[in-house]
Amino acid sequence: MQIKQISVFLENSAGRLGEVTKVLAAAAINIRAISIADTADFGILRLIVDKSDAAILALNEAGFTTRLTDVVAVEIGDTPGSLAKVMELFQSSKVNIEYLYASLEGMAGKAVVIFKMENFEQGLKIVRDNGLSVVEKF
User: 129: pLDDT confidence band, cut at 50, 70 and 90?
Assistant: First the structure.
């Protein structure tokens, strides 16, 4: 099962990230995982939140440009080599990972890795066929 990731396109200037967090806080939306990538001129903030529809609405009303994307969140052991084993499954099946980021959300001793794959359906099939635990909700 996929979860929804929100991408927010931001100018690379002081205070923009803070503005996003204020909008979400005012709408009582909890951030469950977060990642930001930037260039000299702009950044892409990626978020997993508890109420994605409400977050999109609040951010758009505040003037932010957003996009909703399907991603897969996989629970892995919080131990050395756990991610390498999952990556080997994708590599051997020739599934391209566009990006990933992680959260320590979940049970003690576990981590959640959020994957954006070039071929979502093929990647999801690999996850399911190999008995990996998919996180359906944060």
Answer: very high
Mean pLDDT, residues 75-86 taken together: 92
Q: Residue 79 phi/psi, 5° resolution?
A: -140, 155
pLDDT, tens digit, 9 for 90 and up, residues 25-51: 999 999 999 999 887 778 899 999 999
CA separation for the pair 123, 107 (Å, rounded): 24
CA 91 – CA 72 distance, rounded (Å): 16
Q: b/e per residue, 57-84, with b = 16+ CB within 10 A?
A: ebbeeeebebeeeebbbbbbebeeebbe
Determine how many CB atoms are found less than 10 A away from the CB of residue 9: 12
| Three-state secondary structure readout of 14-83 | CCHHHHHHHHHHHCCCCEEEEEEEECCCEEEEEEEECCHHHHHHHHHHCCCEEEEEEEEEEEEECCCCHH
0.70 exceeded by the pTM? yes
Residue type present at position 121:
E
